[in-house]
Amino acid sequence: MKKISLLVGCLLSMPMVFAQCEIHNRIQADGSMFYYIKPTPFYTTESKSLKINIVTDKENYFIALQPTPFPPKEVGNNIKDDLTLELSNKIKYKLKHYDTQYLKQDSILQVLYIIDKNDLKAFSTYEAVTASINMEGTEFVRDYDFKLHKSAIIEQLNCFLKEVEK
Q1: Taken in order 81, 159, 36, 49, is the CA torsion positive or negative?
Q2: In this predicted structure, what is the pLDDT of residue 152?
Q3: C-alpha Rg value of the chain to the nearest Å
């Protein structure tokens, strides 16, 4: 009976493991292809939230942030500052701003930050702890202490890195 319970438990948890590696793609306006895994909530309160996911063009890896609330397009397109992200190894990493996009008829703001190739190992090993983002047009700097799905960056990045190894 214990073996059956264990087997059922394993089978029920498998879709969650595989769902984490469900890779989607999107063609950008310039014709380039981006691959991504659906965003995961990292932080949620009544007044603000932050979703995060990994995006790649198969050459570079990006952290995509979807903050809420976000400024209107004319103001949000001025978000060009870098992201400071602290990992559980107690090191703060500065990620260069890559692009600011409004998706789905401007109902979602997504800001892309490039992960330095020298930092890929750290981002695929250590959980995210905090992030600081200069949200032009809302307030000076938004700080997030991650409470939810801290290992999402690790899991998503490892999905892509395993794909490259094949």
Answers
A1: negative
A2: 93
A3: 17
DSSP 8-state code for residue 126: S
pLDDT higher than threshold 80 for residue 94: yes
pLDDT band at 14 (very low <50, low <70, confident <90, very high): very low
> In 10 A of CB 18, how many CB atoms?
9
What is the CB neighbour count within 10 angstroms for residue 151?
A: 15
Q: Is the entire prediction scored with pTM above 0.90?
A: no
pLDDT band per the 50, 70, 90 thresholds, residue 106: confident
* Half-sphere exposure in the Cβ direction for 1 (13 Å, CA): 0
Question: How is residue 90 written in tokens?
Answer: 């107690």
CB-neighbour burial class of residue 49 (10 A; exposed 0-12, middle 13-18, buried 19+): middle
The tokens for 3 are: 């073996």
Looking up tokens 């292809």 gives 33
Q: Which two tokens stand for residue 117?
A: 């190739």
Question: Which two three-digit tokens encode residue 157?
Answer: 């990045």
Beta bridge partners of 20: none
φ and ψ at 132, to 5 degrees?
-125, 125
